[in-house]
Write a structure and sequence with these properties.
- With 311 residues, the protein is of the alpha/beta class.
- It is 41% helix and 18% strand.
- Strands 3-2-1-4-5-6 form a 6-stranded parallel sheet.
- The chain has 10 helices and 12 strands.
- The protein has 2 domains: 10-148, 3-Layer(aba) Sandwich (Rossmann fold), CATH 3.40.50.720; 149-309, Lactate dehydrogenase/glycoside hydrolase, family 4, C-terminal (L-2-Hydroxyisocaproate Dehydrogenase, Chain A, domain 2, Alpha-Beta Complex).
């Protein structure tokens, strides 16, 4: 690692678009120093230097450094995993599992049970790899968090604010379950300053926003061609990191290995959870309809089969 050696509270494994932008957003917030690591020699150091040269203009005092040594990330309060292959146009998230499972297994072995870090899973497919990482690393499930539901909720909130021409700060929304086309978007848990969404727009309009949310990632890939979304995912990671580092007790929908929630075991899906320095402090289960629970369990079974096939 070049320059001053210091103990970073946040390390990011993978210095591509998501990793670098996450470092930038964390720096802008002033939450923590950040250490970038990448298996490609020199990438992290070069990007860290570029980010630090923006500091005099952006006026952040956060230190961002790069390293080619995995050992440098040990002891970090938060380790963000954004390494791996990304989706291409027309590719389903699940198709990446076999490619990225090897990378996540290796990282799980290197990070291991001895760490006190909180691990934030970003690599796709996020739910499957969150479950795999817990199994392979032996870490408590409360310390391994995927960003799927938080990203989906952010996308839904934006769509609602755009259609209603209302500040995003007034919108409360919730997306739970898998970070796939089978995500659960209960309309009764979306409101604007406490006003139920269906009091403000017709049901068919909200249905179109749900569909937009489900397909948002695919749409971006189809438009950009050679890149997946990274600004929105990076902002979600930064918010999750902020809640951990500041022990903020934010309630956020994150992917976590389920152990009996909704009668589901052994797979990871997003549920609302209180996030602080220890990772997940509490899990809250919103009441679902019988159809929503069936859909959730069906998705869980599909994930279980994929995980078993990848072992």
């Amino acid at each position: 690692m070049q320059g001053e050696i210091y103990m970073s509270r946040v390390s990011i494994v993978g210095s591509g678009n998501v990793g670098a932008n996450t470092a930038f957003f964390i720096a802008e917030e002033g939450v923590s120093d950040v250490l970038l690591f990448d298996a490609r020699e020199g990438i992290s150091t070069g990007k860290a230097l570029d980010l630090m040269e923006a500091a005099p203009i952006r006026t952040y005092r956060t230190k961002i450094a790069g390293t080619d040594s995995f050992e440098d990330i040990r002891g970090s309060e938060v380790i963000v995993l954004s390494a791996g292959h990304v989706r291409k146009p027309g590719m389903r998230r699940e198709e990446l599992f076999e490619e990225n499972a090897t990378i996540i297994r290796e990282l799980a072995a290197r990070i291991g049970t001895g760490t006190g870090s909180i691990v934030v899973m970003v690599t796709e497919p996020v739910d499957l790899l969150t479950a795999l990482f817990v199994e392979e690393s032996g870490m408590p499930r409360e310390r391994v968090l995927g960003i799927g539901g938080l990203l989906d909720t952010t996308r839904l909130s934006y769509a609602v604010s755009r259609d209603l021409c209302i500040s995003m700060e007034n919108i409360s929304a919730l997306v739970i379950g898998p970070h796939t086309k089978d995500m659960i978007i209960p309309e009764r848990y979306t409101n604007v300053s406490g006003v139920p969404i269906l009091k403000l727009m017709p049901r068919d309009q909200f249905f179109s926003l749900k569909e937009e949310t489900v397909h948002a990632g695919d749409f971006i890939i189809e438009m950009v061609k050679n890149s997946t979304a990274y600004y929105a995912p990076s902002s979600c990671i930064a918010e999750l990191v902020r809640s951990v580092v500041l022990d903020a007790d934010r309630m956020l929908p994150v992917s976590i290995l389920l152990c009996g929630e909704y009668g589901i075991d052994g797979v990871a899906m997003s549920v609302p959870a209180v996030i602080g320095r220890r990772g997940v402090k509490n899990i809250y289960l919103p009441k679902l309809t019988a159809d929503e629970e069936r859909q959730l369990r069906k998705s869980a079974e599909q994930m279980r089969l994929t995980l078993q096939g990848g072992r």
